[in-house]
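Late entry, evening session. Most of the bench is empty. Finally got around to the prediction I had been postponing all week. Sequence below, unchanged from the version circulated by S.P.
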Amino acid sequence: MADSIEINPISGFPEWLPNLRLQEERFIDTIRRQYQLFGFTPIETAAVERFNVLTAKTAMQRQIFTLGRPEEGEAEESDLGLHFDLTVPLARYVVQNAEKLVFPFRRYQIQKVWRGERKQRSRFREFYQCDIDVVGRGTLDPIHDAEIPCVINATFEALKLPDFQVQISNRKILGDLIRVAQPDPEQLTRALRAIDKGDRDEIEKTRAALAAEGVDARVIPAVLDLIRCDSVVNARKILQSVGAVTAGLDELQAVMESAITLGMPEGRLRPNFAIARGLDYYTGTIYETFLVGKEDWGSICSGGRYDDLASFFTTQKYPGVGISIGLTRLFNLLVQAQLIDVSCSTPTHPRASRWRSSRGRTRSAKASSRSAICAPAARRRSRGTRWPIMF
């Protein structure tokens, strides 16, 4: 008798039981509905990209799954790989279809992506991302940077998540501060990555990491003060104390003020100068979103501004700004924390549409669907239609 084939689950590749998949699909439907209300239109790109496209603007080689075809017992080398996010494919898509698109191009995209992540809690190698981006041709008005937190706020409210906070910064701020010491470009990139990997509550580790990257010792104290800073006013004093330019800080202040004017609750938006975003393509505004009281979960929605992501494909400028919800990871964390009800196993189960709020209350399918469908219409009647911002 032949040996049986191992069928144990593959680490990092989730397969939900029907009760979980039903709830995940409801999350996807809710996110899609909110994105559409803000005027974003759907696209879907191929799961496979050329390897040189995937690595054109960011050093993610180690996390890319390449495609090969077994041939005579050996894997055939391939120049193709599975996309690790949806932003790089978007840049390629925009360049290829530029003459057929209307700019600013507002797109949403809900697809699976693949990354060779290390094994750790709530990290997956195959997972859903739910992205929105606004892409301009030549220029893109900063008002779109201010619109993004409003979309995050409306989407997470519609998902009935526990209280959350959008933390915002501008990648230029830390860069301008470190440039006072005149580092070379590669050293600056490594320093920003060291800050991104650090923790504002573990300053000494960040200090050691910056020193290891060769950052001038005269600048490190100011960098650490900025990381611990919690207001634009105090951040300005820190930058001015070492003679750093404040252009990035000025941009951040303008974006925050505009976001509040557009309706973003002021208590849900705060600056966090420790945010650096490790991916190389971000150039300006950056966002990370946390559930209040669950900050140890890490960011559940991140993104930012990129001015030259398409520069490897064309000389035409296509600046953009957007965010991504790592849905699979967020959904898994909510399930593990028992913050959503996953007891139903069929769409017609009596409890099929009952969900549990963070306070333990439940709502019926009828009430839930009524609030999800009618509330946006009510808002349109009372506040005006959510027209997309076109500049």
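Two things to note before I forget:
The chain is about 35% helix and 15% strand.
The radius of gyration is 22 Å.
Will write this up properly tomorrow.
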